[in-house]
């Protein structure tokens, strides 16, 4: 989970401060020493840490904090403000050209996650009613073209590729012509990477840039490589010019050093963060919300946005209708669970809720939701249509058959049936409450 180490350390530091009541200058200095250590351990660039601590100290030792009734809260607020500022202050979006197509060029080293990110970005744009075209510009790794074509199929989006002989500049030019003639308003060019930065790579990217003049050059870097990611960003920005950074694999980055240093060191804002391998796992990067997550204050806004974009509204309405008519079946139960699952892992969801840090720790390492969902799906798929509609008919021998068919145990089948019955009961109760609530209101 992202920033786990840092979040733990900072939250402990602030807990101590809270217990103090009035704060002396020495208390603040001690806390700042701990914040400094925590940031260095998180692999934040040392110069960035030095400036950061300097700014906080200047603000925190002032009269208004020391004399306030809630000095600890004031210090936390200052740290929150400065963390937000450090990561870029406000959200940076990509430029959308008023004359389509908008051309976005993804650059970065091999393995950083460019191709995957191209797919994620295309999905996110598609959800905003854009018409993206994916362009396979990585001609050196034959698998890259195939990988992008597979993503295109999954997303039901066109992929422009020339399989033999063409150079990346020609491919990019032709792709843009294709976009014009097929009314695609966003062009996402996946370029080739290399294991390390070299002259050949930079020359190639520069020629694409000079020819197609992209509206956005986004650098994809792997957050887990920490300060290396920051160095890569600095070089790419100096050599090529970069409009924004996409930090991938932030889900696996417990330290967070790259996320906290890249803007301060390079001046390039982070525009998106990759939070997993799935295509839905791309988030717009909001510095203020990230700061809140680090300080254990949660990020309810991102959770709500995630729910809005992941949950299929039509499907949800359909489910609600069924609930009202009380013909909610096991198939519907499965659909509902799959929708919730799209929001991310339990760990990620809890990380966005304020004060859930402790619960998260207790659950860490338990990926039961993923496995359990697979079990539930297997069990439901092993039932006949009739059984799914009416669980009353599922007797002992049917339970045995279902367990065998789904590779689970009879206990698992029993457990699922019980969960389903409970869920149905709860829904009934909830509806009862809604109905009687209405009646009461009518009486006023
Ligand atoms: P490319 O060489 O830059 O095109 O990299 P790929 O797109 O092929 O990605 C390399 C690997 O990183 C693949 O296994 C991806 O699934 C994985 N990956 C990409 N983005 C993320 C992310 O945000 N989180 C995680 N956990 N894995 C990612």
Automatic annotation (TrEMBL):
GO cellular component, one term: signal recognition particle
Main location: cytoplasm
Subunit structure: Part of the signal recognition particle protein translocation system, which is composed of SRP and FtsY.
Uppermost EC category: hydrolase
Membership in a protein family: Belongs to the GTP-binding SRP family. SRP54 subfamily.
Residues that hold GTP according to the record: 108-115, 190-194, 248-251
Organism: Dendrosporobacter quercicolus
EC number: 3.6.5.4
Role according to the record: Involved in targeting and insertion of nascent membrane proteins into the cytoplasmic membrane. Binds to the hydrophobic signal sequence of the ribosome-nascent chain (RNC) as it emerges from the ribosomes. The SRP-RNC complex is then targeted to the cytoplasmic membrane where it interacts with the SRP receptor FtsY.
Compartments, as annotated in UniProt: Cytoplasm
GO BP terms in the entry: SRP-dependent cotranslational protein targeting to membrane
Cited Gene3D superfamilies: P-loop containing nucleotide triphosphate hydrolases, Signal recognition particle SRP54, nucleotide-binding domain, Signal recognition particle, SRP54 subunit, M-domain
A molecular-function term among this protein's GO annotations: GTPase activity
Pfam families the record matches: SRP54 (PF00448), SRP54_N (PF02881), SRP_SPB (PF02978)
Domains: entry comment: Composed of three domains: the N-terminal N domain, which is responsible for interactions with the ribosome, the central G domain, which binds GTP, and the C-terminal M domain, which binds the RNA and the signal sequence of the RNC.
Protein name (Swiss-Prot/TrEMBL): Signal recognition particle protein
Keyword set, alphabetical order: Cytoplasm, GTP-binding, Hydrolase, Nucleotide-binding, Ribonucleoprotein, RNA-binding, Signal recognition particle
Residue span, SRP54-type proteins GTP-binding domain: 269-282
Reaction(s) catalysed by this chain's protein: GTP + H2O = GDP + phosphate + H(+)
